[in-house]
Design brief:
Helix content is about 30%, strand content about 15%. It has about 280 residues and is of the alpha/beta class. It has 2 domains: about 5-185, Flavodoxin domain (Rossmann fold, 3-Layer(aba) Sandwich); about 190-265, Alpha-Beta Plaits (2-Layer Sandwich), CATH 3.30.70. It binds flavin mononucleotide and iron/sulfur cluster (SF4) (2 copies). One iron/sulfur cluster binds near residues 203, 208, 209, 228 and 245.
């Protein structure tokens, strides 16, 4: 089997998922990649998936142990024609959760055959220098693992003569049950438990130059264009606005400082490694 055109779909507010995907794609060395970045609402509004692709690659971060639930309408709208798919989730070294099971059930019901998948580690969205959870991830080693993963996928694909018959990655029964559960109940399950421990990243008007980079980049359009204040009901706590502000005018502030710092202290948490299925 030969791959000429691949479609890459991702959501990556703080860019770790994108870095991992770039490394995988580099290892695959595919000529044409159709990139669909679902991070901003502006991009999501013009989302269109034509199934004329040889391979689908999806990458999402883990939010509250699951797929960010705003992505469901888009992921549910893609259909394949026994098309091979690669699934990638990226988590902040706390827990990979159930996102990969959830993603697997979602796409395998829609005409895709999962040929490889993996969960990788990226800097935790809530990490700061004082609470540096997975602060330097993905590091060189992570990116090398991702690149090797891409190279191995291409080798696997080259050996597939008939994708209909080929034994692809299988899901165990418990993983199927979990995946289906979240596929069905994603709309009613809460995902923003972070709000109990982290404050919204308010703007420091002394530093802010009103460039509005944060306004344009916010995945939920939660930042008021004039006042630069955040509408808390919309905000998903992705902290993209903190990372992208060139003036450092927004900060991550913990509510229970001591507790959160202890929890997010890298010395207390074993550095996890990517888990790959191929
Ligand atoms: C709302 C929210 C919930 C999160 N939940 C988890 C989690 O359950 N486990 C974990 O290890 N990391 C969790 N993270 C951290 C992200 O998965 C991690 O930082 C990831 O690298 C972010 O990807 P991105 O840089 O592509 O946006 C969470 C982040 C956010 C914003
Ligand atoms: S990105 Fe920073 S400097 Fe620019 S408007 Fe937002 S808070 Fe202000
Ligand atoms: S306002 Fe909230 S949703 Fe928007 S970028 Fe900032 S943290 Fe993310």
């Amino acid at each position: 089997m030969k791959i000429e055109k691949a479609t890459l779909i991702y959501f990556s507010p703080t860019l770790s998922t994108k870095k991992i995907l770039n490394a995988i794609v580099k290892g695959m060395n595919i000529e044409t990649i159709n990139e669909i970045n679902l991070t901003t609402k502006k991009n999501r509004d013009k989302f269109e998936y034509n199934n004329k692709t040889d391979l689908l690659i999806i990458g999402v971060p883990v939010y509250g142990a699951r797929i960010p639930k705003d992505l469901y309408p888009y992921l549910k709208a893609i259909y394949g024609n026994i098309t091979p798919a690669i699934l990638v989730t990226v988590f902040g070294n706390v827990s990979k959760g159930f996102a990969l099971s959830e993603l697997y059930t979602l796409v395998s019901k829609r005409g895709f055959k999962v040929i490889a998948m993996g969960d990788f580690i990226g800097r935790h969205s809530f990490a700061t220098e004082k609470a540096p959870l997975a602060f330097d991830r993905p590091n060189i080693e992570d990116l090398q693992i991702a690149k090797n993963f891409g190279e191995n996928i291409i080798q696997k694909i080259q050996n597939i003569d008939n994708i209909e018959k080929k034994d692809i990655i299988h899901q165990c029964v418990s993983s199927k049950i979990i995946g289906n559960f979240f596929n069905i109940f994603h709309t009613i399950l809460p995902q923003n438990s972070n709000k109990t421990v982290i404050k919204e990243p308010v703007v420091d008007y002394n530093k802010c130059t009103k460039c509005k980079i944060c306004v344009d980049g916010c995945p939920k359009q939660a930042i008021n264009t004039d006042t630069l204040e955040i509408e808390m009901d919309l905000c998903i706590g992705c902290f993209r606005c903190v990372r992208c502000c060139p003036e450092g005018a927004r900060k991550i502030v913990y509510k229970g400082d001591k507790f959160v710092r202890a929890f997010f202290n890298k010395e207390n948490i074993m550095q996890k490694k990517a888990e790959i299925f191929i």
